[in-house]
Amino acid sequence: MELNGSQILIEELKAAGIEMAFGIPGGAIMPFYDELMKSDFPHILTRHEQGAAHMADGYARVSGKVAIVVTTSGPGATNLITGLANAQMDSVPLIAITGQVATNMIGTDAFQEADMYGCSIPVTKFNWLIKDVNEIQHVTREAIRVATTGRPGPVLIDFPKDIQITKTEYTPRESAESPLPAIREYPELDTEGIDKLLEAIERAKRPVIIGGAGIIKSGASTELVKFAKAAGIPVINTLLGLGGFPGTDDLFLGMPGMHGTAYANFALCECDLLINLGARFDDRVTGKVSSFCPNATIAHVDIDDAEIDKRVHTHIPILGNVRDVLIALNERLTPRDYDEWRQTWTDWKENYPLQYDWDGSIKPQYVIDQIQEITEGNGIYVTGVGQHQMWAAQFIRFNEPKTWVTSGGLGTMGFGLPAAIGAKFARPEKDVWLIDGDGSFAMTLVELATAATYNVPVKVAILNNAYLGMVRQWQELFFEKRYSHSHYPENPDFAAIAEGYGVKGINVTDVNEVRNSLETAAEHDGPVVLNFLVNKEENVWPMVPAGAGNDEMQLAPPSREAKS
Amino acid sequence: MPRNSKDDTHTIAVLVENKFGVLAKVASLFSARGYNIDSLCVGVTQDPSVSRITLVTRGDEKVLEQIRKHLSKLIDTFKVMDMGESDSVEREMILIKISAPKAARPEIFQIIDVFRGRVVDVSTDTITVEVTGDEGKIHAILNLLQPFGIKEIARTGKVALTRGAKTLKGAKN
Ligand SMILES: Cc1ncc(C[n+]2csc(CCOP(=O)(O)OP(=O)(O)O)c2C)c(N)n1
Ligand SMILES: [Mg+2]
Question: Would the ipTM clear 0.90, i.e. be above it?
Answer without folding.
Answer: no
